[in-house]
């Protein structure tokens, strides 16, 4: 059975149906009645104030600077790369801007949840294939709505390996993100990394190789990077977020002032349910007492101490602080 690919018009119509959008002509002149109630979804991502993401712009600049020599070596041809702006848009809008059929590469984003897309358009792919097989790039390839051949897929995989390797490097020192290739598709309906109405962050990298111009488009769902949005909005490029000494000091102060319950257990005695049921007032329970006992916090032993009285009260005297052998442990600092 032959496989049919969707045309650009068919893809636009499909995406329009997914998002529930209708042509402007159908709604022209329609106004809600005065005083009517308009629905507002508090969970909608449209209400999120996003602003600029300076660190993501830095990552994109690093990526373009580092990937250019790597792709030049791969293609054995000089090329130029320019970086587009960081766009925050709906996923359906991103797909409408994408030429189809094309090469969609789904990648995981550990330790973040979800997947991202690296989209290589056919013009770029055929330009690299032309360069690898000795072409001079004067005759643009004819874009056909067909599956990529085995040879073309091997070239694509090599390109994607280079792109992911350099993109991971661009994140070093900012956040320990690791992108891993999962699969490739040619049609947008098979790459549902987000719902059509979800917000995504996208960047276009335009690559000129010979007389051909193609692009690599990176698309990341906003929900994936929302846990690190403070990192991406930061202007500090000098140190990783984990090296915030002021935050570490504040956290340490808060921990040291936290109240804990210290439990000193004098002794234990084994007993069966039958023995417990038979006990009555006046019975004796034999206990084996050692010279020292252990004090626990939330079930974790922290002190070894002697026991007795002091000032007319029962008391324990610390004999040894039990630590996990780490110099930075809070017990060592305050023993």
Which keywords apply here?
335 residues, alpha+beta, Chemotaxis protein chec, Surface presentation of antigens (SPOA), 2 domains, 7-stranded antiparallel sheet, 4-stranded antiparallel sheet, 11 helices, disordered C terminus, cytoskeletal motor activity
Shape field: elongated
How many domains? The number is: 2
* Major β-sheet annotation: 7 strands, antiparallel
CATH architecture of the largest domain: 3-Layer(aba) Sandwich
- Unreliable stretches covering 5 or more consecutive residues: 24-29, 238-242, 326-335
Tally of separate helices = 11
Radius of gyration: 32 Å
Proportion of strand residues? 15-25%
- Average predicted local confidence, pLDDT: 80
What is the element string, with H for helices and E for strands?
HHHEEHEEHHEEEHHHEHEEEH
CATH class of the largest domain, named: Alpha Beta
Helix content bin: 25-40%
> Which class do the helix and strand fractions yield?
alpha+beta
Measure the end-to-end span: 77 Å
Total beta strand runs:
11
The CATH homologous superfamily of the largest domain is called CheC-like
CATH fold label of the largest domain? Chemotaxis protein chec
GO molecular function, one term: cytoskeletal motor activity
Domain Flagellar motor switch protein FliN-like C-terminal: 254-322
Subcellular location: Bacterial flagellum basal body; Cell inner membrane
Organism: Sphaerotilus sulfidivorans
